Amino acid sequence: MRRLLWKWHGWLGLFAAAPLFIIALTGSVLVFKSELEHLLMPEKVLATDDSRLSFTQLLRAADQALPQHEILGWQFAAHAGEADKLYVAKQGTYDWQILFVDPSQGNLLSQPVGLSHYLLDWLLELHYTLLADHLGLAVTALISVLLILLSLSGFILHRQFWRTFFTLRWGKSLRLFLSDSHKMMGIVGAPLFLILGFTGAWWNIAHILEEWDEVDPKTLAITQSYYNKQLDFDALLTQANQVIPGFEAHYVRFPDKSYPGIHLFGAARDSGALRSDYGSIVSFDDKAGRLTASVDATQADVLYQFVDSFRPLHYGHFGGLISKIIWCVVGFFPSLMALSGYLMWQTRRKPQTRRRTKQTQGKTSKEQVLAR
């Protein structure tokens, strides 16, 4: 049984190696996506100062600056002094685009571009779909499941890991060094691998099921404005705070043909480390601004709260800088393990190939002698 498990562990690892290397590498980089954006494009992601205009002022200023586009989503800056992200689609299309808005002055810091136009957004697309759209989404879901199986099988194979955990044979041979380091990274990273694999698989499979009967985007093309632009959005934010005490909106989803209503996604300020910034929702009618529904994540059922914890667990920002560093470093281990696993397979394969070659040559020599 143990020998069979070794074999399955090895073959699953080889099958998952290439995509897992890419997913782990990009995921490790994306842990610090916000910080890297500050370094790579500060003129787009940083505001003039820490002040903010009212949301109604910002929305109307953006509408006037984008007469050919319809606003579909507005993501508030995570920290003071940062720009808001605005999601729009051009009239006659349903192609989502992104741009940045200075919340202190209301002016646009960039022009609308595709969602994967910027390097780090391109890396996010690579991480999420391997740049292969729905097929890539299915592949990354499968790799996430394989990461879970590899973590469990590796833990079973090394269940008495403490006996040789600190063994790292540097001067013996490449194969032994790779084996020791592979095992060490696997044992250290196993809990995190299970978290990343499970949350990634859940999201991707859920996304695939949601899009199973996907509507043709052409039928959703923007042809008009779908909400009352005279609404007082600051009043809606205030009402949301009354409906869910301490509610702070982080994202506003505006209506389109497939998504009626105005929805505020957010969380209470002191909601807890393992609650996402988007788990609580307050919804309004898009014409009259009447409250239509609300979901308080802290009062929701167990399954809802469990799924809501996936975002901080997957991205690793629940514990500040310390948890992000751990997620960045240990999240990179699968890339190193994919590489070390492949090299170990190669080192084992070479002697077998040489033996087969010698056997083939020996048989050929005997045949030649008999032929004489």
Overall description:
The protein is of the alpha+beta class. The chain has a domain at 42-117 and 217-300. 53% of the residues lie in helices and 12% in strands. It has an eight-stranded antiparallel sheet with strand order 4-3-2-1-5-6-7-8, covered by helices on one side. Strand 5 and strand 6 form a beta hairpin. 25% of the residues are buried. The model has no long low-confidence stretch (mean pLDDT 89).
List the helices and strands and how they pair.
Elements: H1 2-30, H2 33-40, H3 42-45, H4 55-65, E1 69-75, E2 84-90, E3 96-101, E4 113-114, H5 119-129, H6 133-157, H7 174-210, H8 233-243, E5 247-253, E6 262-268, E7 280-284, E8 291-295, H9 302-308, H10 310-315, H11 320-330, H12 333-371
Antiparallel strand pairs: 1-2, 1-5, 2-3, 3-4, 5-6, 6-7, 7-8
Topology order in helix (H) and strand (E) letters: HHHHEEEEHHHHEEEEHHHH
For the largest beta sheet, what order do the strands appear in spatially? 4-3-2-1-5-6-7-8
Number of alpha- plus pi-helical segments: 12
End-to-end distance: 49 Å
* Residues in β-strands, percent: 5-15%
- The parts where pLDDT drops under 50 for at least 5 residues are none
| Cα-atom radius of gyration | 26 Å
Largest sheet: 8 strands, antiparallel
User: Structural class of the secondary structure composition?
Assistant: alpha+beta
Mean pLDDT: 89
Shape: elongated
Helix content: 40-55%
The number of E-state strands comes to 8
Task: Describe the structure using short key phrases.
372 residues, alpha+beta, eight-stranded antiparallel beta sheet, 12 helices, 53% helix
